[in-house]
Amino acid sequence: xxxxxxxxxxxxxxxxxxxxxxxxxxxxxxxxxxxxxxxxxxxxxxxxxxxxxxxxxxxxxxxxxxxxxxxxxxxxxxxxxxxxxxxxxxxxxxxxxxxxxxxxxxxxxxxxxxxxxxxxxxxxxxxxxxxxxxxxxxxxxxxxxxxxxxxxxxxxxxxxxxxxxxxxxxxxxxxxxxxxxxxxxxxxxxxxxxxxxxxxxxxxxxxxxxxxxxxxxxxxxxxxxxxxxxxxxxxxxxxxxxxxxxxxxxxxxxxxxxxxxxxxxxxxxxxxxxxxxxxxxxxxxxxxxxxxxxxxxxxxxxxxxxxxxxxxxxxxxxxxxxxxxxxxxxxxxxxxxxxxxxxxxxxxxxxxxxxxxxxxxxxxxxxxxxxxxxxxxxxxxxxxxxxxxxxxxxxxxxxxxxxxxxxxxxxxxxxxxxxxxxxxxxxxxxxxxxxxxxxxxxxxxxxxxxxxxxxxxxxxxxxxxxxxxxxxxxxxxxxxxxxxxxxxxx
Amino acid sequence: xxxxxxxxxxxxxxxxxxxxxxxxxxxxxxxxxxxxxxxxxxxxxxxxxxxxxxxxxxxxxxxxxxxxxxxxxxxxxxxxxxxxxxxxxxxxxxxxxxxxxxxxxxxxxxxxxxxxxxxxxxxxxxxxxxxxxxxxxxxxxxxxxxxxxxxxxxxxxxxxxxxxxxxxxxxxxxxxxxxxxxxxxxxxxxxxxxxxxxxxxxxxxxxxxxxxxxxxxxxxxxxxxxxxxxxxxxxxxxxxxxxxxxxxxxxxxxxxxxxxxxxxxxxxxxxxxxxxxxxxxxxxxxxxxxxxxxxxxxxxxxxxxxxxxxxxxxxxxxxxxxxxxxxxxxxxxxxxxxxxxxxxxxxxxxxxxxxxxxxxxxxxxxxxxxxxxxxxxxxxxxxxxxxxxxxxxxxxxxxxxxxxxxxxxxxxxxxxxxxxxxxxxxxxxxxxxxxxxxxxxxxxxxxxxxxxxxxxxxxxxxxxxxxxxxxxxxxxxxxxxxxxxxxxxxxxxxxxxxxxx
Lengths: 490, 501
Known about the structure:
The complex is a heterodimer of chains A (490) and B (501).
Chain A: E1 11-22, H1 61-73, E2 77-78, E3 81-82, E4 85-88, E5 98-101, E6 108-109, E7 112-117, E8 120-133, E9 137-140, E10 151-154, E11 161-167, H2 174-190, E12 203-213, E13 223-228, H3 231-250, E14 258-263, E15 268-274, E16 284-285, E17 292-293, H4 296-304, H5 310-319, H6 325-332, H7 335-347, H8 353-367, H9 383-394, H10 400-413, H11 417-422, H12 432-445, H13 447-454, H14 460-471, H15 478-488
Helix pairs in contact in A: 2-3, 5-6, 7-8, 7-9, 9-10, 12-14, 12-15, 14-15
Chain B: H1 9-17, H2 23-41, E1 44-47, H3 49-64, E2 76-80, H4 107-114, E3 118-123, H5 157-164, E4 170-175, H6 181-187, E5 190-193, E6 213-218, H7 221-231, H8 249-256, E7 264-268, H9 278-293, E8 297-301, H10 309-324, H11 343-354, H12 357-369, H13 376-396, E9 402-406, H14 422-426, H15 433-438, E10 442-449, E11 455-462, H16 467-479
């Protein structure tokens, strides 16, 4: 359910996000097994990620590099020395009884992430970005399905590298929270540090939400929302929670500081645990890992290898290319789409950027992915081939409508526009004399229908047009056929 | 047939490599001694006779095929049950790890095996290495071969007693606050805690990560040096392992036989305080005189923060232990309580049943130390004092090459004598914890016996990464004395059948 933030009720909403980004590395953060998904339960494990007695963590350099890429892209201060810490709690999917995270001295501090809400530029300041390991997954079998409701634990996810992005409470609405998440997804994909899949949990967030009377500077009591695994859930949960808190304050009640779980089916948040029984995590520096020291040369090399960031790209599309913001939004939502668009544009420098954008948005994207994401392997029409097609249309050699048919053939047969046209499949029959001959033959062979049409039965026009199109194998231009028929049947 | 139980490691390995004796025969001789004598001592938690025979046969086969079977070819060793051994149950003498058969091998034991050493079995210890008397074992205590009513020290009590009794040619132990050196002293053998990071901790079950030092115990300085040369070295699987060249320990020990000219030895006043047993002090003072006669220059030095070392040590080690032992929850391995209805009950009962009293005490202390709001008052302050202790050593090592002290303030005490008072037991570590906090190498070797016939230990402390000088001093002392040639009298009591810890 979507509800407006309680703007009219005299309250401001204040939101901060804690975003977990699963880093796409070849091995886990502290051990050698693969972090890949989709394998059988407990197939991607090793003694270290299981925390077996005597095993020790060794930091994966690729995870550090991914985190530093993210930190640099978000304008963070990269600490030349950072530390890992142990965060303790007992749960079966946490193999060691503690999570290796960062507490004091995180890898990245400060920074800003820009985003847009319906075209308006916003930004959020970051507190920090730190590295940590993921836990496994508990699977609870309900009573009856197993022996007295058994629980199973899958440790494939244990030790998968995570970046936690902690924002300042700079967000002022549910929309801002959802759009920030969207911007973070675009950013982590552009950086190739995370696949950004929220449903599978490779990108997830908790939201800290509070409300305060409009004009008041101090923050209200916050609640922490969990289970926000889509942009819609982020928006709906924050909106609901802000309304719930405002309603309590209106009735003179306090907001309890607690962790609440979003229930998307019922559209409500419900208390999980209160501050009173919050964990004491007993943080202390991880003695098995020396402090992480980074040198400037290495950080500069990582910075130099950063790709064009989504916000810079958006600016280029809307200013240099004069694309509408909505188009630029779609094209920059993931870097592969943008790269495809850029490649098509550079292969057809004379074509209009807007026309190429239309083709990518209306023809290419709907044919690929499912999650709104373009993976180049999925696209049978190379960007340069699309550029060529658009150039042909721009030159007037091909009508826009026929161009779509040609594109369909290019897609299904994996051939270029010229190859499709040369094969004759969709060549337009533009010889008016030849079309007229066919029209006369068709009219002559249907004297009854011709007589009825001349007597005023106008709906028979369709019958004659269809017959001519059939005769020409669909190559005639229906508009031309209709004009000729008008003359022949007059 | 040579007296294999009396031979030094280099001699044994040399003969096996030259095919003068078979590794299999050496192994059988030691297995026979274990079977005859360990019943009175309780050193072994697990004898892996079948595995030992296979390993010995492989060494003989390699030698017969002309391949080098390694510098420790056919040398029968045993491991404190804190070293993880692939396919061989590893319990840390705790009920909570009962039945845990690891699928991987510790780096230290893998290096020993690769050098041709033949692992005979797993040795008794204080549970999770927490203790100074080996009385905290779920399997029961180890007895001191020199006096069966006395403790062997701990926590590597099984290692020290087995080496003293000739039930293995050498052993691996771990030292967190003195757990190699103190039992070595109480059993009259040699043991070294090398520099922190010198020997990999991978596959060594963690007690206190920043203090755990694996190391060897041997009957002689040369035996201990030979074992350390194999165990030491950088390991990419331990991020705290030091990537520095290791070795040269046997040569350094041999050089000591030619005297200690140019070597300055510091004698820290703080290690000769009231509470030091008079006979121990007399033996250590005599040893210092001997080192002076060997050519060393003795200078009095001060390590002013020594008095804070025990308190600091127990804050740090309990904090880290409470964290390291959180993984024993009954979910993945080892003991699991039956019939628990809730997750909390599963944890409480599994851990309540699985851990012994001393382990529980330290987990509770460490949990308290790390509580939110108390971190600075306890753990944070302990880390700062630890730095002061390390600075003490750095300061004296600016003008000394080594320090020499007693290892334990007292000789072996009677079984049960200190179990009622944990604090009194903790004071057994008073002379060994400071080098552990500083991470500097420290060795213990025998320097005499009390009138009651109990061994006295001499502690030699060196600069970080300078095990060579420590061995040089130890080699010099051993060359001028014959304490290391004495053997405890053994009583033939067959080993009890292999049981559970």
